[in-house]
Amino acid sequence: MMYRKIERLYLQAGNHLTGVPRAAMPGGAMELILAIDDDKGFLNLLSQQLTNLGYRVIKASSGAEGLEMARTGNPDLILLDVAMPVMDGFKVLTQLRADETLRGVPVIMLTALPKKEDIYKAMRYGVLDYVLKPYDVELFKKKIQTALQYSRMMKSEKELERSQHIDISRSAAGRWFQSSRVSVSSTSSMRPNAFSAATF
Length: 200
Hints:
The chain has six helices and five strands, in the order αβαβαβαβαβα. The protein has helices spanning 2-15, 40-52, 63-73, 89-98, 116-124, 137-189, and strands at 32-36, 56-60, 77-81, 107-111, 129-132.
């Protein structure tokens, strides 16, 4: 069910794409991408490509470092290598999905090993895309744009849910306050009038 929702929103994001890179966010901020890969040469090349496209980039050369940067950097998108020592991409992904603040961050997995079982496993985790190295730069750029569009849509949806929750809470508080006033007013009207009880 979760994967179907992700797939639907991802397709909607793709339909909204234009040919113009969409690095700029409202207010002039630049979208932040976290790249995690143990191959430092490839990581530097990837970082340079993303920087040239107008994105801000933070890099991590291990799964543990990537998790720490994800928690402190608040990225809009994570590019995650599969084959890494100690903590591979799937272990990182498990940690990301277990963290309430990070589970909604879109992830694109990168790998030089085209294993079908890995692709299926990644999709079960809700990964947005699975890119094989070496990749076509133009196609990869489109995938990045689509993933970031999806990220914006998810954030807008979350903000809408938050605002609706606040409105509901305020409405409930207002009804409680109004009923409390009515209750106090009713209690006051039931008190005996001191003047009506007096004899002249």
